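Reminder: ligand-aware prediction takes two inputs, not one.
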Amino acid sequence: MAEIIAKVMVIGGGPGGYVTAIRAGQLGLDVVLIEQGGREGGLGGTCLNVGCIPSKALIHAADAFAHAVEQAKSAPLGVRVERPTLEFGRTIEWKDGIVGRLTGGVGALLKRHKVKIVHGHAEMVDGKTCRVDTDTGPQVVKAEHVVLATGSETAILPSLPFGGRVISSTEALSLPAVPERLAVVGAGYIGLELGMAFAKLGARVTVLEAADRILPAYDAELMRPVARRLKALGIEVVTGARASGLSPAGDALHVMQGDGAAHDIAADLVLVATGRRARTAGFGLDRLDLSMRGGFVQVDERCATSMLNVWAVGDLTGEPMLAHRAMAQGVVVAESIAGQRRAFDGSVIPAVCFTDPEIVTVGLSPDAARTAGHEVQVGQFPFQANGRALTLGAEDGFVRVTARADNHLLLGIAAVGAGVSELAGAFGLALEMGARLEDIGGTIHAHPTLGEAFHEACLRALGETLHI
Ligand code: FAD
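Here is what comes back for the chain with flavin-adenine dinucleotide:
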């Protein structure tokens, strides 16, 4: 087979890789993108196939069912529903339909920008060459620039290897039926998003976490409304405990408490969600002379690796492992290759936890700001005092702003509450534009909206709040 020669070769078609390829195509560069497909991949990568999108679809379906069940029980809004039932097969079909539309869309966008797609597993030969194992045989691809975007994979717990009843988020998103009893190992965002969704779909869920509380990556104040909702959903949470294996019959999870006490959690399925690790093995990365940082490929502010004209983006390059970070890096790399002077600034990357209620954070928490040496002014506004939240029947939560005490420059914004993920854009924009408390306080926010809580949190930090 003839060699393919291009200006840019992108390995991996996830958010990092496909955005690099689209932007490079827009800039007139000759691009080849290689995607292996398979269980966890395909155009769109983890995010579109087995991550962000299918999980949010499942969460939405679970919410719809839980609302119907609630209406059937007590009709708090006066909407009477007779015993709702769940056709889970149709739920999964609907979710798969969304995934299909989006992954097909990525293929069409790549085509529109004249990106050549090679389907198969790429193996690096050197810093300019890879060999792709395609359905029609091996294919050599050479390029002046190589962009590594191979993403991440679920971390394996040695005590609970995947297989049989032990599943990862990938399998959890395509189950044939809702399990009767589900044990979730890991109370980070993936474990809680899926655990809460399955509880709403009817499973009896237990969540196990080694740290002394759920969502250890978020500050305790933001975690509390989620902890209350877990309790209301009947989800048992076991903290300060580790999973040490399955019972011989496979129907219970052995748990070891911090004090050495052991007990079992009965479970039909065990979902292990203890984190993800960069996909650095199995494609000849060791043949390149790359500096590493921890388990990640080290990159500079342009996302350039330690080898000339070898770039890396996305989960492969470190935390936060989020799709929008990968995409932003992809744009920087494509434009850098096209000769523009670009740098990736990761100081304002929103993080959203699609639990119930949702959490969104951007920038620094009050504690992190103080640790960084700032004297801070903090304003918090509860959704209990926000009209829109009450009309949505969702008053648990708040918006919190952290600003410098001396000049009121916003350093961090966070919220917990139903639907707050949609405030991430406003929060990010405020930080990115260098807004001060007075800028948000002086902006007319539409009434009645959840965004008014952001306005009021800033007014509160200034001692001028109107509605509390
Ligand atoms: P990936 O999306 O992992 O893509 C890498 C691609 O490279 C894959 O398609 C893979 O098949 C391909 N590949 C790897 N090696 C080779 C090779 N040798 N040859 C050819 N192809 C190869 N992030 C958010 O921002 N918001 C969310 O709500 C969110 N929810 C998530 C929920 C779950 C359950 C999971 C698992 C993840 C979630 N994430 C979320 C994280 C998000 O999916 C990742 O941050 C994002 O996909 C990273 O993009 P990437 O391009 O770096 O890598």
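Residues 88-112 form the longest helix (25 residues). The chain has a mean pLDDT of 97. We will return to this case in the review session.
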